[in-house]
Design brief:
heterodimer, A: 119 residues, B: alpha/beta, Rossmann fold, 10 helices
């Protein structure tokens, strides 16, 4: 089988939930994957795993520098776990950190937001 | 298995200058698998067009340690786009973004966008197609929590967002039982130019 694995992210599932009237694309992908495997007499095993990001991936997704992310990990502002000798950030921790950061940003710009929306 | 990179989007000055649009994109992006960036040129132009007492995007960027994207090379390029917009196009390319979010999609020539593999998209259209329901709801909640004087409910924010973002409101109209505030602005005639479709691709591989 040419495609050895299929990854479905929480975003794939959530994006489909926004359009409940249509068949979710991720379900189509799974069906197609299983059908192809069956046609070739292969087994399919579904597994889940804890989603982890590297500090570089967190930097890319937040628009912050690698050194800023390293500093935030060192200060405990962003919690990382060690995998071997490398830092990995659980996806849910990345989301918590981002929401906290954006909460602070919204507080700082509260007057601007009000003026823009209601002014 | 490797994590698929999040989609990068570049914000034009006219988007950075609007606090609500900018915040919806900045805060909601990483919750919807995209993230924003902008360049020094875009930031400086935005500052020139903002309300006098508005918080500068430079202050926000420095306070939260957000990085500027690199300045692109414009020399002798993008002849089909007007001279004043060429730097933004070059900066979008240099940032590695797939999308240029701008209120003035028609300022950017289709042939230049296609040559770069970039799509120019109106912010309301982009948000309506890419901001997930969870992300939109989270940002509305952040707005409501941050607004204490006077207190404003999430449904009031949702209704008011329709003034600037009628398509975004419509995409999540049933989130709160509230009617949209009327938009005082006419809808731009050109909302999209380029090759990349705005809707989220399937990420499975």
């Amino acid at each position: 089988m040419s495609m050895q694995s299929l990854t479905i992210t929480p975003e794939d599932v959530r994006a489909a939930q926004d359009r409940p009237s249509t068949q979710p694309a991720w379900l189509d992908q799974i069906a197609s994957y299983v059908q192809r495997a069956a046609a070739e007499g292969e087994l399919v095993t579904l597994t889940t795993k804890r989603r982890m990001l590297t500090p570089a991936q967190v930097a890319d997704r937040t628009g912050m520098s690698r050194s800023t992310i390293s500093r935030k990990i060192a200060s405990g502002e962003l919690r990382a776990i060690k995998v071997g000798n490398r830092n990995r950030i659980p996806y849910e921790e990345y989301l918590r950190f981002w929401k906290a950061t954006m909460g602070e940003l919204v507080e700082v710009t509260a007057d601007d937001l009000r003026a823009d929306l209601f002014g | 298995m490797a994590e698929t990179p999040s989609t990068r989007v570049f914000l034009d000055a006219n988007v950075i200058a609007k606090p609500v649009t900018r915040t919806l994109l900045m805060a909601g992006g990483p919750l919807s698998d995209f993230h924003v960036t902008w360049s020094l040129t875009a930031e400086q132009e935005a500052i020139r067009h903002m309300r006098p007492r508005a918080t500068s995007p430079a202050v926000i960027r420095e306070r939260f340690d957000f990085m500027l994207s690199p300045t692109g090379d414009v020399a002798g390029r993008f002849a089909a786009t007007s001279e004043s917009d060429r730097q933004i196009l070059a900066d979008t390319e240099a940032s590695g973004a797939q999308f240029l979010i701008t209120e003035d999609v028609d300022d950017f020539a289709e042939e230049d966008l296609i040559a770069l593999g970039i799509s120019a998209v109106n912010p309301d259209l982009f948000l309506s197609l890419r901001l997930t329901r969870d992300a939109y709801s989270s940002v509305i909640d952040l707005f409501a929590r941050g607004q204490v004087a006077p207190p404003t409910t999430p449904s009031e924010f949702h209704s008011a967002i329709a003034r600037q973002h009628p398509k975004l409101f419509a995409a999540h109209a049933d989130l709160y039982d509230v009617k949209p505030m009327k938009s005082p602005h006419p809808t731009p005639t050109v909302l999209f130019r380029g090759m990349h479709p705005v809707q989220r691709p399937h990420l499975g591989k």
